[in-house]
Write a structure and sequence with these properties.
By secondary structure, the chain is mainly β. It has a single domain (about 1-215), classed as Jelly Rolls. It is about 0% helix and about 50% strand. It has strands spanning about 1-5, 5-10, 15-20, 30-40, 50-55, 60-65, 70-75, 80, 85-90, 95-100, 110-120, 130-135, 140-145, 150-155, 155, 160, 170-175, 190-195, 200-205, 205, 215. Strands 2-3-4-11-6-9-12 form a 7-stranded antiparallel β-sheet, with no helix packed on it. A hairpin with a 2-residue loop joins strand 15 and strand 16.
Length: about 220
């Protein structure tokens, strides 16, 4: 097991923690950037204001645990994301977008807490036409078991498939465990990673640190 501690960027009102790329590992499957931001509550009248900036030859996936973010882009898209939904922006041959706290959240001080991951596009598809899709509700199925539930954000897991475009085959899920519950991790995938965003958990008896990325050896069984 390889541990990658995050590099933390303090942006004043909130922090962004990046685990990929790292010196020890640049990618896991198609994932080339793994960023976690918050939890944060901004002062009344303030907000997140990531100004318009370009992306090219990749895709970004935004997922929130708390709060709301408004996405705008050069395709004319304007979409507010809330917990339980995914924003997939395929930059392809080029797109410009911004991310801001919605106006209605600013008077009392916005809260936000979530993940943004960037995926490399497959060889030959780097110059796709740019696109944006918002998926929520039934498009992100919830799989439930004894003490365990998983929101499938991309790919297929335990017989359920997310209604989100996959440019490269992968599995991305938000897994929630009750106290004392366990979850076996499928050994078949060549590259697997786990990141703890809240609470306490262990992997093979090894306690996990918050916001650290844990890479699991191929063909090894874990729980």
């Amino acid at each position: 097991m390889i541990e990658i501690a995050p590099v933390t960027h303090d942006l004043g009102d909130f922090k962004v923690r990046r685990t990929l790329p790292a010196r020890s590992r640049t990618m896991v499957g198609p994932f080339i950037f793994v960023d976690q931001f918050g939890p944060a509550k901004l002062p009344a009248g303030h907000g997140m204001d990531v100004r318009p900036h370009p992306h090219i030859n990749l895709a970004t996936v935004t997922y929130l645990f708390e709060g709301a973010i408004e996405h705008r882009d050069s395709l004319g898209t304007r979409q507010v994301i809330h917990p339980g939904a995914v924003n997939l922006m395929t930059a392809g041959k080029g797109i410009v977008h911004s991310e801001r706290s919605p106006a209605e959240t600013r008077p009392v001080g916005p809260v936000f807490y979530g993940m943004q991951t960037w995926l490399a596009l497959p060889d030959g598809k780097e110059e796709l036409d740019p696109a944006f899709e918002h998926a929520g509700g039934d498009a992100l199925p919830l799989v439930e078991g004894e003490g365990v539930s998983a929101r499938v954000l991309m790919g297929s897991l335990w017989g359920k498939t997310a209604g989100v475009t996959q440019h490269s085959q992968t599995i991305y899920a938000d897994v929630m465990l009750d106290k004392g519950a366990t979850l076996p991790i499928d050994p078949d995938a060549d590259e697997r990673a786990v990141l703890l965003t809240e609470g306490a958990a262990s992997l093979g008896g090894h306690p996990l640190e918050l916001f650290t990325l844990y890479l699991l050896a191929p063909a090894s069984a874990w729980r």
